[in-house]
Amino acid sequence: MAFELPELPYDYEALAPFMSKETLEYHHDKHHKAYVDNGNKLAAEAGLADLSVEEVVKKSFGTNQGLFNNAAQHYNHVHFWKWMKKDGGGNKLPGKLQAAIDSDLGGYDKFKADFIAAGTTQFGSGWAWLSVKDGKLAISKTPNGENPLVHGASPILGVDVWEHSYYIDYRNARPKYLEAFVDSLINWDYVLERYEAASK
C-alpha cells in the first residue's frame, strides 16, 4: 500500500507555544512529505509497494538503507503527530498506563527523567522511545529513523530529537524541548491505545 502523508490531527497553532506553527509547517509539510515521496519511489523500485509500512520497515532494515530510512521515518511520524495534543502531557495518566509505568519503570517521575535522558543523550539525530518488549515497558533511544519495531518491540510513545523537530523553537536546548514534550504535549490517550494494542 502506498505511503500517504496524513493530515495533522490539530491545526498548526494548536501546540503553541511548545511547538510553533512554523515548526509544524516545516516538519510535517516538508520533512514528512519528503519521507513519503521518497519512500513510495524506493518501495516501488524494491517491489515492496503493496506491503504495510510496518512490513516495509522490517523487511528493509539492514538490506535497503535508503528505503528503510524513509519508511521508518514515515512510520515514526505518522504516530508522532498523534502522540501530541493541545493541553497534553503531565502526570495525569490513564490508570492502566500509570499502573504499568509504576510496575515496570519505577513510577512517573522516574519515567520522565529516564525518557528525557534517553532523548538528551541520543547523539545526533534520532528518537527516544517508550515501548512494550517481552510484555514489559522499556525506554530506549535509536539513531536516525531506526525504531523499536526492528528490535522486537512495539513503540507506544516516541519523541523526535532530529534538530528540525525543535531548533526553530528551542535552538540547541534539546532538554528544554524534551521537558516541554513530556509536560505539555503528550497525548496519553493515544499512548494508552498503542499500549493496549501492543499488550494483546
UniProtKB/TrEMBL annotation:
<comment type="function">
    <text>Destroys radicals which are normally produced within the cells and which are toxic to biological systems.</text>
</comment>
<dbReference type="InterPro" id="IPR036314">
    <property type="entry name" value="SOD_C_sf"/>
</dbReference>
<protein>
    <recommendedName>
        <fullName>Superoxide dismutase</fullName>
        <ecNumber>1.15.1.1</ecNumber>
    </recommendedName>
</protein>
<dbReference type="Pfam" id="PF02777">
    <property type="entry name" value="Sod_Fe_C"/>
</dbReference>
<keyword id="KW-0560">Oxidoreductase</keyword>
<feature type="binding site">
    <location>
        <position position="27"/>
    </location>
    <ligand>
        <name>Mn(2+)</name>
    </ligand>
</feature>
<dbReference type="Pfam" id="PF00081">
    <property type="entry name" value="Sod_Fe_N"/>
</dbReference>
<dbReference type="InterPro" id="IPR019831">
    <property type="entry name" value="Mn/Fe_SOD_N"/>
</dbReference>
<feature type="domain" description="Manganese/iron superoxide dismutase C-terminal">
    <location>
        <begin position="95"/>
        <end position="193"/>
    </location>
</feature>
<feature type="binding site">
    <location>
        <position position="164"/>
    </location>
    <ligand>
        <name>Mn(2+)</name>
    </ligand>
</feature>
<dbReference type="GO" id="GO:0004784">
    <property type="term" value="F:superoxide dismutase activity"/>
</dbReference>
<dbReference type="GO" id="GO:0046872">
    <property type="term" value="F:metal ion binding"/>
</dbReference>
<dbReference type="InterPro" id="IPR019833">
    <property type="entry name" value="Mn/Fe_SOD_BS"/>
</dbReference>
<feature type="binding site">
    <location>
        <position position="160"/>
    </location>
    <ligand>
        <name>Mn(2+)</name>
    </ligand>
</feature>
<keyword id="KW-0479">Metal-binding</keyword>
<dbReference type="InterPro" id="IPR001189">
    <property type="entry name" value="Mn/Fe_SOD"/>
</dbReference>
<feature type="binding site">
    <location>
        <position position="77"/>
    </location>
    <ligand>
        <name>Mn(2+)</name>
    </ligand>
</feature>
<feature type="domain" description="Manganese/iron superoxide dismutase N-terminal">
    <location>
        <begin position="3"/>
        <end position="84"/>
    </location>
</feature>
<dbReference type="InterPro" id="IPR036324">
    <property type="entry name" value="Mn/Fe_SOD_N_sf"/>
</dbReference>
<dbReference type="InterPro" id="IPR019832">
    <property type="entry name" value="Mn/Fe_SOD_C"/>
</dbReference>
<comment type="similarity">
    <text>Belongs to the iron/manganese superoxide dismutase family.</text>
</comment>
